[in-house]
Amino acid sequence: MPPAAQPRTLTFEELTVWRTKLPDVKFAVLPPGNTRPNPLIANDMLFVSVFSPGAVCALERDTGCLIWRRELGKFSGASVYFHERELLAHSAHTLYSLNSDSGEIRWSFCPYGPDGEWIYSSPTIYQGNLYIGDRKGFLHCLDSNSGETIWCKRTNSEENDVNSTPVVVSGLVIVPTNAKIVVAYEAITGEEAWEQKVDGPSIFGPLLHKGFLVVVAVESLYLLDPTSGKMRQHFQWKGDSIAFAESTGRDVVVALRGVWPPKDSSEIAFLNESGIHRTVSLAGHCIDFRYFPDKGLLYASHFQGVDLLSSDAAEVLCKLTTPGRDGDTALVDVQGDRIYALTGDGAVQALRHPDGAF
After folding, report:
1. pTM listed for this prediction
2. 156: which of 96, 124, 136, 179 fits an S-S bond (Cβ 3.0–4.6 Å)?
């Protein structure tokens, strides 16, 4: 049997359409707690969240020209959220609604004052309501136009963090918490609908997959019925932990954190409601994924760059490398024949998408 063909390797420099070095960046990339990209494509613009010092930047998508920059304090979140020309970003203690055209602050929400770190959760909007958790264990429902509180619920008695990103399914807003529970509320009224125990704290996701709610709880992954909270499937990796997960529509792809100090590769598992049906070893560590159905590819960001994988065979088709870069590569966004990437040194790049002849 002939040896397997090696994946094609290209550098960012070979594929660069434009490159913009953002101003005043110490370190740009925060490891993500959900699958939202950074930078984010919205119409003819790109929006970038810079971790340190905290800032949001807007660039022209076609040219990379910097349009505006808004400082947010010492640290910012791993991504921004765009909804009907409203741009939502957060620092360690404050959620900001920004005018996407100008960067002007429309309103801000700071539940406990500017001292300390209170917001690790990311916002979600549903029917004009905005949902976000805090590190005292509360889930807040705000008016997305004004920032005024509509309702606020304590999710657990221990005041453990709500660091995950709320999702809304069938009129329910659902959040996993660090108190080893998942809680669902009526999205409009805030009335509790169900609660489900899990075996560990949850800071990532959750995801939606084939009608299931995918909950990551350190060493475990659960498939829950989002309308009732009932457990439909449970996967566990004792002695390891889950670093990231993404849905391809057919499978849930799980990146395991592995041992410390990290090896030169990471274990990736492909699973569905029937069980784990494939595991592969992928070069690199601190791997995050995004799936783009129109390309049929997984884009795996890590310290060494971005890998393009087939979503069915989990085969690395092409490696895009960032030699000499300082730190991680954030989750990319893809549109047409362009890949938009942010590296830890604060460089935003539009890359030519490699053709299909990998």
Report:
1. 0.94
2. 179
